[in-house]
């Protein structure tokens, strides 16, 4: 694929409670090859929505660190046995946003507390009866096809139905799906939407995958110093970022992944993973870069 994008924006997302999330970080890399730049701001989820809807530079590849859908292929449905289970990812996003419409800050607590939906999730007090397809306790829960691909590449994915633990991704993914619903008509989401021939597009990213491809092990994917970050950027062929005081792992995740997106976005195989069918693209989506 010839160079298609002029900017590469990586967002480390957060499902934490509150009007502003310390865990949200945003970094942008230009196609020309300059160091990635941290967009320093005390972000709220609504702030990010506003940027993606109204303020993106032309032809930006946006990567957001969240799951863009729930598992579907393993059980044949998002919520097997529930009459109102949605048919595809956009319908899922709409359902979440509708049920959680009164939750502030794009929260999703009302969705996971819904009496007909709670049995599909594991939270801090309960593992739902439908946390797995057969009702047995398999520990890690249900996975999308793309998460199996992540694991084959050396990552350690977590189920989007899991809402407990330091590494859980369920809450951030559900809040992100509310944002994706509100971006309909403004920003296509690959591969749920086809990749347009021009303009901006949003993809799901997994920052640990970028770290792995920058020479970091799964156990050391998180970087908390400029020295670690710049060593990883060097592996990707990116210029170093200037050292300015301290840096946290949210910022390093965003900075490294922006540079990684710039490096791999022109590789055709990243847009045609071998196990991604049209049905999986429509229902589960995919993690950009997972092969």
Encode the helix/strand succession as letters: EEEHEHHHHEHHHH
What would the average pLDDT be, to the nearest integer?
94
Main-sheet strand order equals 3-2-1-4-5
* Assembly state of the chains shown: single chain
Poorly predicted runs: none
- Give the fraction of residues assigned to helices: 25-40%
Which strand-content bin applies to the residues?
5-15%
Write down the overall geometry. globular
Summarize the biggest pleated sheet: 5 strands, mixed
- Strand count: 5
User: In angstroms, what separates the terminal alpha carbons?
Assistant: 16 Å
Q: Using only CA atoms, what is the Rg?
A: 18 Å
Tally of alpha and pi helices: 9
Protein name: DUF429 domain-containing protein
Question: Any chance you could write out the topology, listing elements then pairs?
Answer:
Layout: E1 7-12, E2 25-30, E3 37-38, H1 45-54, E4 60-64, H2 89-99, H3 109-113, H4 145-152, H5 170-182, E5 201-204, H6 207-213, H7 226-235, H8 249-264, H9 278-283
Parallel strand pairs: 1-4, 4-5
Antiparallel strand pairs: 1-2, 2-3
Describe the model.
This is DUF429 domain-containing protein. It is built from nine helices and five strands; from the N terminus they run βββαβααααβαααα. Strands 3-2-1-4-5 form a five-stranded mixed β-sheet. α2 (89-99) packs across α5, α6 crosses α8 and α7 packs parallel to α8 (249-264). The mean pLDDT is 94. The protein is of the alpha/beta class and 291 residues long.
């Amino acid at each position: 694929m010839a160079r298609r994008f002029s900017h590469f924006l990586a967002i480390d997302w957060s499902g934490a409670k509150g009007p502003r999330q310390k865990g949200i970080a945003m970094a942008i890399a230009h196609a020309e090859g300059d160091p990635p730049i941290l967009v320093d701001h005390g972000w709220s989820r609504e702030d990010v929505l506003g940027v993606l809807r109204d303020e993106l530079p032309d032809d930006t590849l946006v990567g957001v660190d969240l799951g863009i859908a729930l598992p579907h292929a393993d059980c044949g449905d998002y919520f097997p046995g529930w009459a109102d289970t949605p048919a595809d990812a956009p319908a899922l996003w709409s359902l979440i946003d509708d049920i959680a419409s009164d939750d502030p800050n794009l929260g999703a607590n009302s969705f996971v507390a819904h009496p007909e939906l709670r049995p599909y999730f594991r939270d801090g007090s309960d593992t739902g009866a439908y946390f797995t397809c057969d009702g047995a306790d398999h520990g890690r829960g249900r996975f999308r096809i793309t998460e199996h691909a992540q694991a084959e590449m050396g990552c350690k994915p977590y189920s989007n139905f899991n809402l407990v633990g330091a590494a859980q991704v369920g809450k951030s993914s559900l809040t992100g799906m509310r944002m994706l619903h509100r971006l309909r008509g403004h920003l296509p989401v690959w591969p749920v939407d086809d990749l347009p021939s021009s303009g901006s597009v949003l993809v799901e990213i997994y920052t640990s995958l970028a770290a792995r491809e920058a020479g970091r092990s799964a156990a050391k994917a998180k970087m908390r110093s400029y020295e670690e970050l710049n060593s990883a950027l060097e592996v990707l062929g990116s210029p170093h970022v200037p050292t300015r005081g301290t840096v946290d792992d949210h910022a390093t995740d965003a900075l490294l992944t922006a540079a990684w997106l710039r490096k791999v976005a022109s590789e055709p195989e990243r847009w045609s993973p071998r196990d991604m069918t049209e049905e999986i693209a429509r229902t589960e989506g995919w993690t950009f870069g997972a092969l």
